[in-house]
């Protein structure tokens, strides 16, 4: 669907930047740092860490911006979590967790390398073309100061680029008329989404709601009648259209960086996330269709 090679290159770059941001969500360090300031529940920890840049917001704001989390799960923790720890304290704890996680996954030599400094410079340059309007999670993160340490600056820039694309992706999902659970189920059916066991454990939906969403997708002709989640030709086309629309909405930062810059950032990002993956950054069964 994405015929423009520049959009394909931009998506490829995003695909190696995004998991770099996400490493801390699967690190024991995040839970440890947040527990130390009074946020002990793992679900509350994720919701607080990601929403803290927006301030002490309520459940409605978090549900709207996160999109695929069940509102009742969000409301169980937000805004109560802000009584345990302020957004500022959460952000400081998150930064400590990111720092220690990256030091463990990449090692001191990589963090202090010229390549890390170059990656930070390139990623930050790309963020210069990001825009705040209609992008609440990006806009909130963009108001934060850029860290001084190169590895933290690179993580910060990767976060900005991830949330910028993510805000646009939600718009694409709405345009495709996929509700939060349908969006999750159809992504699982591509074989590239988070495995059902992880979705059900973290997003708040139960198995009956997950299965009901699959049935709605079958009624729309997007999934086959098979028990295993398999996209029909129409389903494949719709998911491709969603990604194409997301690519188009996320064009600006990579166009600003330029083809040479995108290629170099992709090269460096691939190296760093490859090292992180090799050191166990994510569970082995995180991606796939297995229930």
From TrEMBL:
UniProt-listed Pfam families: HTH_67
Entries under InterPro entries matching the protein: HTH_67
Highest taxon of source: Bacteria
Name of the protein in its database record: SalK
Biological source species: Streptomyces endophyticus
